[in-house]
Amino acid sequence: MSPIGAIKGNWRVLLLGAFLVFAVVALFIPGGIVADDGLASDSVDSGPTNLEFGLGLEGGTRIRVPVAGMTAEDIDTGAVSDDGRVDQERLDGVESTLQSELDLDQADVSVDVQDDGTVTAEVFNDNVSESEFAAALQTADVDATEDDIRDGVTQSTRDNMIRTIQTKINAAGLSGGTAYESTTVSGDHYIVVEVPNMDADELRTILSERGQVEVVAYHPENGTQTNDTVLRGGDIVDVDPPEQQGEDSYAVPVLVSDEAAPGFQQQMNDLGFTSEGVGRCGLRGDGENIDFDQEGEHYCLLTVVDGEVVDAHSMGDRGGNGLATDMREGTWVNDPTFQMGAQNQQDAQSLSVNLRAGSLRAPLDFSEEQVYSIEPGHADQFKQYSLLIGLLSVLTVSGVVYARYTDTRVALPMIVTAMAEVVILLGFAALIRMPLDLSHVAGFIAVVGTGVDDLVIIADEVMDEGDVSSERVFQSRFRKAFWVIGAAAATTVVALSPLAVLSLGDLRGFAIITILGVFIGVLITRPAYGDILRRLLTDR
Question: Of these four, 109, 160, 183, 394, which has the most CB atoms within 10 Å of its CB?
């Protein structure tokens, strides 16, 4: 047989081999198939494989907590016309009125047009009552009552927070961490955050930080010191890792957006930071706090995170050219890089994470939190027991298969093919960085069982009607068996699909692995086993 003919006749086996190579690379080669995105910390050790583990196999904490806030839905602000045009100035006016009437920060109020064209107003503060919210809306010329207001936030806000939390987890190098939404039968919405190798207090600290970053100009005006916000976290488009500038000084290099850079440069010039204010920041820090009790005039750029000043510094230098000079000459906007300071490494790392992830749109209500934790020692035991149970299941299935057929030509390829299916699944899990948990282990064991069951159907259908003397007879019997396997696979996928889609906790992981195993089996491993069996049993 020619090489081309051999490839055509055994392409299913070659496809199985290609997937196995792909899986082995994803599992064991550092970096896997997809290179690291640069967010994870280099200190994270994934062990001998690229697999990531969840709480049940690594230990850690799961926190289930609602979002704090109230929402007035489908309010008539007059900002959306009949043809769908949006009056952004009117929306900003309503938002500004809510801020002033309720005495809230800009981050605690949101007025947005939803995808369906309706307008919603949200307040992210537990100290505001429904009556106060309704009164503030009425002051903004919005016809709203307390009946129009409900507890909770909009779906878009929850989605935004989940994306931000997930980015924050990744940027902090918390391997295997994940964030998702959970909904109760009564319709209450929760955000669930799982992070391995972290206790509840540490995770609660991370989630309680809104991550609102500002650069504030602290400068003299009319004989007194005053503050002007000159940059916000949203004005930053790129962030480099923190750098140590001195023994007790750290900086986070950032790139300011093209939209914000001209305004920032103009403010620095107008406020005197690029002229008389160069190098004139006399505020001192003790490594944790900034001492503002200093006499004289000061021109300081304050790094502020969630309202707390973490650093104060004067206009610095960049390379051999003065940053102040670049701003005075108007050339800084051509390369709008900037350094935001921090007093210690922890603050610098936290600042970098907050700038990369963005700020949480709303706070989380930890008064209604539900916490689940597993000690790392227990998780190690679960990991060992899971490996032991997996090996026992393989040995048991292998023994039963061999006892049934007593023919290594049939039994050995069957066992090898079933194990190949598990390896491909593990490679896929490593590729997408799926945190494996106990529910996934149960899914792998189910895949081994159902996979061998399908292979037994193939072997029985092919061999029970007598010797296979030709390829035509084999193909006829194999097709009959494959129709049975396909129908069973479709039934399994339909039955498990609701568990894979709905927020049902650990059941979801079991369903996802089982469904993936079914697809890999039907599309790759079962046809490959058929080709192997054909080569072994037919005269060809």
Answer: 109
Say which amino acid occupies 388. L
How many domains is the chain built from? 4
Instruction: Evaluate whether 341 touches 251 at the Cβ level (below 8 Å).
Output: yes
Co-location of 184 and 286 in the same domain: no
Residues 6+ apart with CB under 8 A from 403: none
Tens of pLDDT, residue by residue over 251-296, are: 899 999 999 999 999 999 999 998 888 888 888 887 778 888 888 8
Q: What is the DSSP letter of 233?
A: G
Same domain for 457 and 380: yes
**Which two three-digit tokens encode residue 325?**
């000079």
Which residue, 131, 151, 171, sits at the end of a domain?
Answer: 151
- In terms of domains, do 385 and 309 share one? no
Of the residues 328, 357, 386, the one at which a domain ends: 357
Three-state DSSP state, 361 = coil
Q: What CATH number does the domain containing 31 carry? A: 1.20.1640.10
Residues 462-478 pLDDT 10s: 777 666 667 777 788 88
Name the residue among 184, 125, 113 with its Cα closest to residue 154: 113
In angstroms, the CA 422 to CA 441 distance is 11
- Residue from 219, 214, 222 nearest 281 by CA: 219
Alpha-carbon span 209 to 171, nearest angstrom: 15
3-state secondary structure of 13: helix
DSSP for 111-175 reads: EEE-TTS-EEEEE--TT--HHHHHHHHHHTT----GGGEEES--HHHHHHHHHHHHHHHHHTT-T
Report the candidate in 280, 279, 255, 267 with the shortest Cα–Cα distance to residue 327. 267
Q: Model-level pTM greater than 0.85?
A: no
